[in-house]
Write a structure and sequence with these properties.
By secondary structure, the chain is mostly beta strands. The protein has 4 helices and 51 strands. The chain has a 22-stranded antiparallel beta barrel. A hairpin with a 4-residue loop joins strand 38 and strand 39. The longest helix is centred in the first third of the chain and has 25 residues.
Length: about 850
C-alpha cells in the first residue's frame, strides 16, 4: 500500500504540473488569427468506373452529421470551411452497399479528395448491413500492421489488462513459459515498443517492462516488416500504441470490481486474483481541454500445479496509472501530455517444480514515463514535437543468502544473483509530415529526427552456486569475485526521410532511408528500405505487397556493464571430493565486431562496436472473398548478423567469458489469416502460422538480464526457445440470442522446445530439438448488458478456461540423472470465473 499511495501522490502532482505547463503556454495564444479552414471533395464511381450521380454523401465528426449532399452528374460533392480534425464519410445509394471511410484527417488549409467505387448490394437478410472500406487497398502501404482495438480485446475471456497481455492475439507473437513476449521467434530486446511515438523500452535490457493499461489504449499496431523508415531500433518487430483522448462527453467505466477467490479442495482459501480498473475521460473545458485517466490495481497469485499448496504460488502486486491531457490551442495547434506510473512487485519469480519458492528471486520495479507532444499545422503540413522522460528503478534479490544448488531433480538454496540499477532515458522526437504533393501521383513525404540520452547505473552481486549429482555429491562449484558498480551513459541519434508514393489507384511505393548512430558502440548504421503495393486487376480488390529492408537493433546498456560484473571461478570435483580441474578464473572480456564488407555499417575498432542487423524481405497477397470474408497470405524471411552473445573461450591462454558480436539467426514464416465480419460488432479472426526460428543459444540476455542463469555453456546454433513450427489461432465476438455475446479463443500449436542436460548441467545432444506435447486450449466468455437506468449499465460475464480439459504439460524432467527423466507433468485444469463491469 505505501507504494500505491506514493504513486497516487505522484500522479496528482504530475497532473497538476501538466495543467500548469499547458496553461503557461496556451493563454498567450488564446487570441487567435482567423481559422485556417479545410476542404474535402468526394467523388463516387459505379462498377464501370463512370461517375455515379444521385449518391447521398454524409460527413461526420465524432459520430455527428455535420454535412450532407447528393452527387451530381460528375459524381462529386464538396464540403468547405471545415475545421481540422478526423472525419468520417458515408456514401449510400439504393441498390448499392453503404460505404464508409473513417479517419479522413484534415489539416489547416488542406484540400483532400476521397474516392468511392460503389458495389452492388447483395441481399442476404434485411437485418444485415454490409459495410466496406472505401480506401484504395494500395493506400495502406507495403507493410500494413496487424491492428488490435481496445473495444475488440476487452470482451475476450483472458480480460487483458495491459498492452503486453493483448499481443499473443497477433499471428507470429507468443508468450514464452517465462512470460516474455516473442515476436517472430525473438525476445523483446529485438523489438521496439512505442507509445505515441515515444520509446518506452528498458534502456538497460531492452525489455518491454510494465505497459500501458488497455483501457487507456485506442489502438495497438504490430508491425513485423515496417518498410517505413520512421521505425527503427529493432530487428524483429514494432509494437506501436496510440492512447485515447478524452471525448466531448464524460464517460466512466468500472471494470472487474470483484476479486477472484481461491477454491482448494472445495474450500474457500482467500483471494486468487484482483484487478479492479477505473477509466474516465471527458472535457475539463468544453471544446478545448480534455482528460483521459485509466487506473488499475492488480493482485495476481499464479498457482503452480506441480507444487503442493500453500507454497505453490507466485505473487504479483502492481499499480498502473495512465493520464492523458489534451489542450486545443487553436484549430491548427494542440498540446498533449501523458504520464504513466507503474510500480510493481513480484515475489517468487519463475516459480516451478524445479525451482520452489526458496530458490526463486523477488523483483521490484518503479517505472515512470512522462511525455509532452506539440502538434502544429503549418501551411497544410504537420509538425509533431515530442519530449519524453523515462525513469526505471529495478531491484532483484533472493529469498535469503544461502548458496544455490543445482541438482538433476530440482534446485535448492536461494537465488544466487542480486542486482540494483537505476536507468533513465531522455528523448526528443521531431516529425514533419509534408502536405501531399501531386507530381506523377501523390507523394506523402515524412521526415524526422530522434535524439536520446540514456543512463544505467547499478551493481551486480552473486553468491556461490554448487552443482550436485543425484546423490548430492558436489561436481562443480562456481564462485563470483571482484564485482564493481557501473555507471554508463549513451547518446543515440537517428534521422529518416520517407515517401509513401501513390502513383495511381493501383500502385504505390514506400521509399525510405534511415540513419542511426549509437554513441557507446561508435557505429553509424544506414538502413535503406523499399516496399510496393499493387492491385494487378482493374476491377478486383486483390492487392499484392512486398518489400525489402535493413533493420538494426539497439544494443542495451547492460551489455557494456559486462566488465563490471563479477568474474566466475569454477572448480571441478571428482567422485571422492578431490579437485580434478581448477580453480579456473574466467575473465569478463568485451570483444569487438570484426570488420566486414557490409557497406551500411561504419564504425571504429573499439571494443563493444556492436551493430546487430537483419535483412528482411516479405511478399503478401490479400483478397476479399466476399463482403464478409477477407483472406491474406504472407511469407517473411529474415537473416540477422552481429547478434551479441556470451561464450566461454580461451583468449591468449586465459579462460574467459567473451561478449562478442558475431552471432547469427534466421527466421522464416508463412502466415495465413482470414477475417470474417458480417455485422457491426461481430467478427472472427483466424490465423495459421508456419515458422522456423534458429539462432545462437547464448544471447547476452540469458546472462545479463534481470534473472540470469549461472551456468554459461558452450554456444550452439539451433532452434530458438520461441520456435513454434505450427500455430493455429482463432478469436472473435459473436452475437447470441437475448442480446448476449460470446467471445471465444481457440489455440492449437506445437509445444515449446526444451533442452536435455546431464548431472553436470552440460548439454546432452542438440539443445532445443525435443518439444513439449502439442498444446490445445479453448477459452470462452459469455456476457450480457443490463440497463439498470438511463445512465448505468451492468455487464455480467462468465468465462471458462481450457474447457476441453486438454493436458497441456507445464514441465518435463529433462535431466538424464533424474529418476523420472522424460516425464511430462502438470496441467492447468478447466476452471470458470464470474465478473461484472459497471459502465456509466
Amino acid at each position: 500500500m505505501p507504494a500505491v499511495q506514493r504513486a497516487n501522490k505522484l500522479l496528482s502532482f504530475s497532473s497538476l504540473a501538466a495543467l500548469a505547463l499547458v496553461s503557461h503556454f496556451s493563454f498567450p495564444i488564446l487570441a487567435q488569427q482567423p481559422r485556417s479552414l479545410a476542404t474535402v471533395r468526394v467523388t463516387t464511381y459505379d462498377e464501370t468506373d463512370q461517375p455515379a450521380a444521385a449518391v447521398q454523401v454524409q460527413l461526420k465528426l465524432k459520430s455527428q452529421i455535420i454535412g450532407s449532399a447528393t452527387t451530381g452528374e460528375k459524381g462529386q460533392v464538396e464540403f468547405t470551411d471545415l475545421a481540422p480534425g478526423a472525419y468520417e464519410i458515408v456514401v449510400a445509394k439504393e441498390g448499392f452497399e453503404t460505404l464508409t471511410q473513417s479517419e479522413v484527417t484534415l489539416t489547416a488549409r488542406s484540400s483532400v479528395e476521397v474516392k468511392f467505387t460503389l458495389v452492388p448490394a447483395i441481399k442476404l437478410n434485411e437485418s444485415v448491413t454490409i459495410r466496406a472500406s472505401a480506401a484504395t487497398p494500395v493506400e495502406r502501404g507495403a507493410s500494413p500492421a496487424t491492428e488490435l482495438e481496445r473495444t475488440q480485446v476487452k470482451e475476450l475471456p483472458n480480460k487483458p489488462a495491459t498492452v503486453t497481455d493483448t499481443l499473443p492475439l497477433v499471428p507470429g507473437v507468443v508468450r514464452s513459459p517465462s512470460g516474455e513476449i516473442k515476436i517472430s521467434g525473438s525476445g523483446e530486446h529485438h523489438s521496439a515498443l512505442l507509445v505515441n511515438s515515444a520509446d518506452v523500452t528498458d534502456p538497460a535490457t531492452g525489455q518491454f517492462g510494465a505497459t500501458v493499461p488497455v483501457d487507456s489504449v485506442e489502438t495497438i499496431n504490430v508491425f513485423k516488416t515496417p518498410y517505413l523508415a520512421q521505425y527503427g531500433r529493432f530487428t524483429a518487430g514494432v509494437v506501436s500504441v496510440e492512447t485515447r483522448r478524452g471525448g466531448d462527453k464524460w464517460n466512466f467505466e468500472l471494470n472487474d470490481p470483484l476479486p477472484e477467490f481461491r477454491i482448494f479442495s472445495g474450500h474457500l482459501r482467500g483471494l486468487r486474483d484482483a484487478s479492479p480498473r477505473i477509466v474516465f475521460n471527458g472535457p475539463l473545458i468544453a471544446n478545448r481541454f480534455y482528460l483521459s485517466q485509466g487506473v488499475e490495481y492488480e493482485l495476481k497469485k499464479r498457482p503452480v500445479r506441480t507444487l503442493p499448496f500453500p507454497r505453490n504460488e507466485s505473487k504479483q502486486e502492481s499499480y498502473n496509472s495512465f493520464t492523458q491531457l489534451d489542450y486545443i490551442l487553436s484549430p491548427s495547434h494542440t498540446l498533449t501530455g501523458t504520464f504513466h506510473l507503474a510500480p510493481q512487485r513480484i515475489n517468487f519469480v519463475n516459480l516451478d517444480y524445479f525451482n520452489p519458492q526458496p530458490v526463486t528471486p523477488s523483483f521490484r520495479a518503479r517505472d515512470d514515463t512522462g511525455t509532452v507532444t506539440d502538434r502544429l499545422t503549418v501551411g497544410g503540413s504537420l509538425l509533431e514535437s515530442t519530449v519524453a522522460i523515462k525513469r526505471l528503478g529495478v531491484d532483484v534479490g533472493g529469498q535469503g543468502r544461502d548458496e544455490m544448488a543445482l541438482t538433476p531433480a530440482g534446485n535448492r538454496g536461494n537465488f544466487f544473483s542480486e542486482q540494483s540499477r537505476r536507468t533513465s532515458r531522455f528523448e526528443w522526437v521531431e516529425l514533419f509530415s509534408v502536405r501531399p504533393i501531386s507530381h506523377y501521383g501523390a507523394h506523402n513525404l515524412k521526415f524526422g529526427t530522434t535524439v536520446a540520452r540514456t543512463t544505467d547505473r547499478g551493481e551486480f552481486i552473486a553468491r556461490p552456486v554448487n552443482i550436485l549429482d543425484a546423490a548430492g555429491q558436489l561436481l562443480k562449484r562456481i564462485e563470483f569475485v571482484d564485482h564493481r558498480p557501473f555507471n554508463l551513459s549513451d547518446v543515440e541519434f537517428a534521422a529518416f526521410g520517407q515517401d509513401q508514393w501513390v502513383l495511381n489507384s493501383r500502385l504505390a511505393l514506400d521509399l525510405g532511408l534511415r540513419l542511426e548512430r549509437q554513441g557507446i558502440t561508435g557505429t553509424l548504421r544506414i538502413a535503406p528500405r523499399i516496399g510496393v503495393a499493387w492491385t494487378p486487376f482493374a476491377h478486383q480488390p486483390t492487392v499484392i505487397r512486398g518489400g525489402f529492408g535493413l533493420f538494426y537493433d539497439r544494443v542495451p546498456l547492460n551489455v557494456f556493464a559486462f566488465d563490471r560484473y563479477p568474474e566466475q571461478v569454477i572448480t571441478t570435483f571428482g567422485p571422492d571430493g578431490e579437485i580434478v580441474d581448477g580453480p579456473r578464473r574466467f575473465a569478463n572480456i568485451t570483444g569487438r565486431a570484426e570488420r566486414s564488407n557490409f557497406p551500411f555499417i561504419h564504425g571504429g575498432k573499439n571494443r563493444g562496436n556492436f551493430a546487430p542487423y537483419s535483412r528482411t524481405w516479405s511478399v503478401e497477397v490479400e483478397h476479399p472473398i466476399s463482403r464478409f470474408l477477407r483472406v491474406r497470405a504472407n511469407y517473411l524471411q529474415s537473416s540477422a548478423d552481429g547478434v551479441v552473445t556470451v561464450t566461454p573461450r580461451v583468449v591468449d591462454g586465459q579462460d574467459a567469458l567473451v561478449l562478442g558480436g558475431e552471432g547469427k539467426s534466421n527466421y522464416r514464416q508463412l502466415e495465413l489469416t482470414a477475417r470474417l465480419s458480417w455485422q457491426e460488432g461481430q467478427q472472427l479472426f483466424f490465423s495459421y502460422v508456419r515458422s522456423r526460428a534458429r539462432g545462437e543459444l547464448n544471447e547476452f540476455n540469458s546472462y545479463l538480464g534481470n534473472f540470469p542463469f549461472p551456468v554459461v555453456r558452450p554456444n550452439q546454433f539451433t532452434n530458438l526457445p520461441g520456435d513454434l513450427p505450427h500455430r493455429f489461432l482463432a478469436w472473435g465476438i459473436l452475437g447470441l440470442p437475448w442480446q448476449m455475446r460470446l467471445a471465444p479463443i481457440i489455440e492449437y500449436r506445437n509445444g515449446f522446445p526444451y533442452t536435455v542436460t546431464d548431472a553436470a548441467q552440460r548439454f546432452v545432444g542438440t539443445p532445443n530439438k525435443l518439444r513439449f506435447p502439442k498444446f490445445f486450449s479453448l477459452d470462452a466468455r459469455i456476457s450480457k448488458d443490463f440497463k439498470v437506468s438511463p445512465k448505468y449499465t451492468l455487464r455480467f460475464a462468465v468465462s471458462g478456461f481450457n474447457l476441453t480439459n486438454h493436458f497441456n504439460a507445464l514441465d518435463v524432467h529433462a535431466n538424464t540423472a533424474d529418476p523420472q527423466f522424460g516425464t511430462f507433468f502438470g496441467n492447468n485444469q478447466r476452471r470458470f470465473r464470474v465478473d461484472f463491469d459497471v459502465i456509466f
